[in-house]
Amino acid sequence: MSEVFSITVLSLQVSGLATVLSLLVGLPLGTVLALGRFRGRAALLSVINTGMGLPPVVVGLAVAMLLWRSGPLGDLRLIYTPWAIILAQWIIAAPVVTGLTAVALQQLDPRLQLQLLGLGASLPQMVLALWREARLPLIAALIAGFGSVISEVGASMMVGGNIRGQTRVLTTAIVLETGKGEFERALALGGLLLLLTFLINLALTLIQQRGARQRGRT
Amino acid sequence: MIEVRDLVVRRDGRAVLTIDRLRIDRGEVLAVLGPNGAGKTTLLLVLARLLVPEQGAIRFESASGPLASDLDYRRRISVVMQDPLLLDRSVFDNVAAGLRFRHLAAETVRQRTEAWLAKLSITHLKDRPGLKLSGGEAQRVALARAFVLEPELLLLDEPFSSLDAATREALSAELKRLLADTHTTTVFITHDPAEVRDLATRSLWLEDGRLIPRPA
């Protein structure tokens, strides 16, 4: 039981941190892509949109090659540690958050930027106001980012190694138990993963819908 | 107060606004008329420093000292667009937005916001969501949001054009009263000759991006 608990905590820590880090990158980058007018913007948007569908095993392969003992970042000795999983999951979630942030901001009336500046907003104040206006789809971006990493197994397996007590997370544990023919245990872990995902998404959705209700209140 | 010289704004290589000289004096209420696509909104955006011209100079003599930056300039003026473009917040927060951008003390923000809600007769709406107002109510909020900043220059882009005739007339009368009370230097774009007659101290005609003598 204590092992299941530690696996669950590690899953939440790894995927939670990867999501937060993807938000730190995705929110500003998505904002620049939505509001900026620069050469290569369309190409960058296409790259981000492609990245939204990155196969986790491909990300796992790339990160493994990067962190492998003989790889360019091998000296950091991160392979088969939770940090390797966080890095891989960050690469998976960041394009999702970035792309959906850009879409959320592009849905706002473009004249709103001019109006805010015309009221004396500085650039950071304008961006903060736009984020606030787009808060409902931005929370949806957060939900999608978290959903993309909590449920992935390929990258976590390849760069984490599924080491008991160190890098075993819920998804890799399910793969292990299934491989051993321990279907009941695998099913229980699967149910736990679904329950956790549901509860976290429920919390985020409640926050999102409270905003929607406030918007709709007359 | 504000002087424009040798201004050229180009779009896709074509000059969409060319103004050799335009001077707007303090206290003046200048109406800019002209057909659609004449460059009226472009002129307003340039005056608001929201659009950088390819060529030309805009000199602004502020009553409160020299300008430090474009942001400093934009904090001495106020802009009202064709649509109210209110934020997804309460009416109070909408009117207070510009004051908060200027980092004024909370009590000052509250006092000035409440004063202007009262002046525009919208105190009863202060807790309502900004996006749930009628067109006339929303435009009153937009006016309060602009006037609460006590701007040295007020720029209005056809603020009443999307309203019905009765509301437009009422708001026009309201604006006339506010301009008379505050003596705010104003540039407003309009298609409505009645608004020019009621509000403006001077009018200009813009056509194909150039100021021309007003057609008969």
In short:
Chain A is mainly alpha-helical and 218 residues long. Chain A is built from 10 helices and no strands.
Describe this entry's structure for a reader.
The complex is a heterodimer of chains A (218) and B (216). Chain A has one domain (2-210): MetI-like fold. Chain A is an all-alpha fold and 218 residues long. Chain A has helices at residues 2-35, 41-51, 56-67, 82-106, 111-118, 123-133, 135-150, 154-160, 170-179, 183-216. In chain A, helix 1 packs across helix 7. Chain A is 77% helix and 0% strand. Chain B has 216 residues and is of the alpha/beta class. Chain B has a single domain, classed as Rossmann fold, CATH 3.40.50.300. The longest helix of chain B is centred in the C-terminal third of the chain and has 18 residues, at 165-182. The two termini of chain B are 29 Å apart. Classes of the chains: A mainly alpha (218), B alpha/beta (216). Chain A binds chain B through residues 109, 111-112, 114-122, 125, 129, 132-133, 214-215, 217-218, and chain B through 45, 48, 50, 71, 74-75, 77-79, 81, 83, 85, 87-89, 97-98, 101-102, 128-129, 131-132, 145-146, 149, 155.
Topology:
The complex is a heterodimer of chains A (218) and B (216).
Chain A: H1 2-35, H2 41-51, H3 56-67, H4 82-106, H5 111-118, H6 123-133, H7 135-150, H8 154-160, H9 170-179, H10 183-216
Helix pairs in contact in A: 1-4, 1-7, 2-4, 3-4, 3-8, 4-7, 4-8, 5-6, 7-10, 9-10
Chain B: E1 2-11, E2 14-24, E3 29-33, H1 40-47, E4 55-60, H2 70-74, E5 77-80, H3 91-101, H4 106-119, H5 135-147, E6 153-157, H6 165-182, E7 185-189, H7 193-199, E8 202-207, E9 210-212
Parallel strand pairs in B: 3-7, 3-8, 5-6, 6-7
Antiparallel strand pairs in B: 1-2, 1-4, 8-9
